[in-house]
Design the sequence.
């Protein structure tokens, strides 16, 4: 299994911020609002369709983000994160100390431990990030009380992926059993 890394670290981080405490469907809706509201419009060279690109930190740092129907705190987190990226306080390079990266993320208004770990896992391919405050991971760890995360350092991200996958499969089995 591979880590589910996004292809663009900035986009991945912003999508992670928008995805805090909402469903996957709601996150998708919020990302769509952000892209339509603040991304540059382009015309597809083959189909001729108009679409929008994901906005960069320059656009998001100075915007009020009123086109995105989310909390004021989440809007401020996006603006502050974008400003910090522009100022060089947060590097999105894969070649960096993940611990320092997570620390820099935690200095961003509105980003807590879950966000720092999750963004580190998804944006810079941090193999040891583990968002232990994640509700699904907490439930999965209750099913595996003997799992010592300290023993699997520096590969805890893989444990997170396996635990998320196992929990999803368990939910899927329960739904099938209810239908029959």
Sequence:
């Amino acid at each position: 299994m591979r880590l589910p890394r996004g292809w663009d670290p900035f986009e991945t981080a912003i999508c992670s911020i928008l995805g805090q405490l909402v469903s996957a469907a709601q996150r998708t809706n919020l990302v769509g609002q952000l892209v339509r509201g603040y991304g540059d419009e382009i015309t597809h060279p083959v189909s001729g369709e108009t679409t929008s690109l994901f906005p960069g930190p320059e656009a998001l740092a100075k915007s009020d983000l009123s086109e995105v129907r989310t909390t004021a705190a989440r809007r401020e987190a996006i603006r502050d994160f974008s400003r910090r990226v522009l100022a060089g306080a947060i590097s999105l390079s894969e070649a960096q100390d993940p611990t320092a990266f997570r620390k820099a993320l935690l200095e961003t208004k509105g980003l807590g431990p879950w966000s720092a770990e999750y963004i580190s896992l998804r944006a810079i391919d941090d193999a040891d990030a583990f968002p232990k405050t994640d509700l699904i991971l907490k439930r999965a760890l209750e099913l595996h009380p003997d799992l010592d995360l300290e023993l699997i350092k520096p590969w805890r991200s893989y444990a997170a992926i396996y635990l998320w996958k196992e929990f999803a499969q368990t939910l899927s089995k329960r739904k099938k059993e209810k239908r029959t």
Summary: Strands lie at 41-43, 50-52. The chain has two domains: 9-123, 135-179.
